């Protein structure tokens, strides 16, 4: 949602650390931004609407020194994307930046207005600043004023606070929204996620819900809301800072599309023995799954599509029935869950509020919980009984790519793990399936070689206003994913459908202005059905992009406008391969349209509000 960064120390120019961190956090939200730095005992606030470059321009006309400061880049929840709603929000000596939602801000605002506080913004965050100031000026210490304020605040928050009456510290507090602190030599940092500070420190503490961190130049303390010290482990992050740069690519998204072969390889590493036909996951013991009779898979957006494909994999290989739910729908449908249910939450960020809440609902009803996530110690990881990490490395582009393919390979490995341990598949079958997993990185590399062809196709298609994506079986969710990729970065209307559904309505949309991407790898049991769909579309003059594998007859070539050939593979691995040209197609259409590919309008990389 929003990005927060803070620095205290004098080894680096505060403003440089803040702006560098906000630059790396801009993918979390970018409709306005701001900083507060304490200089000679006074807080200096600079804010601007729009992208971070607008704030940079303002700051280039100022010289801000001082060795304590906080910064924020915003994805609007309460209050339009304007300069007055940009953070930090100020009350008296107190400046606050916040990521999350204050659910009871209206009643708190009424109380504060009665006390004479004047509100300048339409945000919920401003309530935090006045509340802390109110406690502070009535005699509490700075940190107790923060603790007291948050005892009456309900909702989700990651907050950093400074006061020019206490210029030797930053106070940070979190509940439901991510916040880390990083430790330096005579300096300390805080941020919404690791990428913002990795180039300064690798020693990181992941704050837990209810933690209050007091950062000073020479050290830090962490307490609970009552002021009682709590101990938190220091993790040493081994990510390579370069891995969060663009690596010579024009956009993070393109870099991450090309990282998928390596990301899948990293994700499977050390998790199987081909000669034994065994799969294992660190920290998992099969005994935990002995009494599992059914699985519910939960996710949003691309992660939801991964769940849909996971259903095919798990049911086919392990025989366990799988229900898939959109996280945002799950807990409102009164799901029937018991102790024999395994709830799997799939989430790249591990911070998606809808998925976190759905998982907690399943847990409340007695389910065992397993997270498949890309971020260590993320909220969903910490709320689950068990975790399997994808090892895609930081995914910065808002459009999820390498996280998706690594989610799929984890789901595939997990299917083999369940199937083998339940004796649904033989050792030989397990070895064959593991062999396919091992071959997947090479198939991904081959699929990436389609890039120039897809770029040319993107140039021919970027002016169309509507697209249809069609698939069957495990490639029906790939039709959904291809449509999502295109719409979220190019803003072109795109729909994904099960190809068999065409005759029940969507075919009414087809005419010469409708490009239709038909996902039809040869190995699928429904290949011939898809050829039937092809003829239906052709009969209505739709433009056909035929995504298939293996040989295509000359006769068939005549009926399509473009054939994309992916490498041959099994039907259940084909979604991982078929998605590559669709990611590239969305990327190049968006590139020709000139949209902001890494930070598409209205979107954020992490949606920590429901
Ligand atoms: C995918 O390209 C989108 N950015 C979005 O749908 C995303 O998949 C969704 O918000 C879920 O995020 P998560 O995987 O971090 O939970």
Indicate the CATH architecture of the largest domain.
Answer: 4-Layer Sandwich
The largest sheet is: 8 strands, antiparallel
Number of strands: 26
Helix/sheet category: alpha/beta
Ligand roster: 2-deoxy-2-amino glucitol-6-phosphate
Termini Cα gap: 11 Å
| Rg | 25 Å
Q: What count of domains describes the coordinates?
A: 3
Layout of helices and strands:
Layout: E1 3-9, H1 14-25, E2 32-39, E3 42-49, H2 52-60, E4 68-74, E5 89-91, E6 94-102, H3 105-114, H4 125-137, H5 142-151, E7 155-163, E8 170-175, E9 180-183, E10 187-191, E11 203-206, E12 212-216, E13 219-223, E14 235-236, H6 252-258, H7 260-268, E15 272-273, E16 278-279, E17 294-299, H8 301-318, E18 322-326, H9 327-330, E19 341-347, H10 353-364, E20 368-373, H11 379-383, E21 386-389, H12 402-421, H13 427-448, H14 451-461, E22 466-471, H15 476-490, E23 493-498, E24 515-520, H16 527-539, E25 543-549, H17 554-559, E26 562-566, H18 574-593
Parallel strand pairs: 17-18, 17-19, 19-20, 20-21, 22-23, 22-24, 24-25, 25-26
Antiparallel strand pairs: 1-4, 1-10, 2-3, 2-4, 5-6, 6-7, 7-8, 8-12, 9-10, 9-11, 11-14, 12-13, 15-16
The structure holds 2-deoxy-2-amino glucitol-6-phosphate.
Overview of the structural elements:
By secondary structure, the protein is α/β, with parallel strands linked by helices. The protein folds into three domains: 3-243, Glutamine Phosphoribosylpyrophosphate, subunit 1, domain 1; 249-445, 3-Layer(aba) Sandwich (Rossmann fold), CATH 3.40.50.10490; 451-593, Glucose-6-phosphate isomerase like protein, domain 1 (Rossmann fold, 3-Layer(aba) Sandwich). It has 18 helices and 26 strands. An eight-stranded antiparallel sheet has the order 3-2-4-1-10-9-11-14, covered by helices on one side. A six-stranded antiparallel sheet has the order 5-6-7-8-12-13. Strands 18-17-19-20-21 form a five-stranded parallel sheet, sandwiched between helices. Helix 16 (527-539) links the parallel strand 24 and strand 25. Helix 4 packs across helix 5. 2-deoxy-2-amino glucitol-6-phosphate binds at residues 300-303, 347-349, 352, 355, 398-400, 488, 606-607.
